[in-house]
Request: fold
Amino acid sequence: MSTEFKTVDLEQPVVRGEQTIDKVSIRRPNAGEMRGVSLLDLSRMESAAISELIPRLTVPPLTKPEVNAMSLVDFMAIGVEIAGFLLPKTATQDSPN
Reply:
């Protein structure tokens, strides 16, 4: 089984010491990484659920304080990608119209 990644270009880069993070990759979560996170909360885009998952799924891994300081636009962009992983592939493929 291959691991799937989505990349988000950050509008407001995260500065960590001398390092500037201007994009992050989000990895498809496995069941264990969802521990303690309600799927219902995640499907409703609850910020607490998204905040819990971002440090677990981002490459490079963002810390909780970095997530809390993140711009709302970047936070939502990452949240949308994480929520998209909950959909089956058939729901995300273009329909042949």
About this structure: The chain has a mean pLDDT of 89. Residues 5 and 27 are 5 Å apart (CA to CA). The chain is about 40% helix and 25% strand.
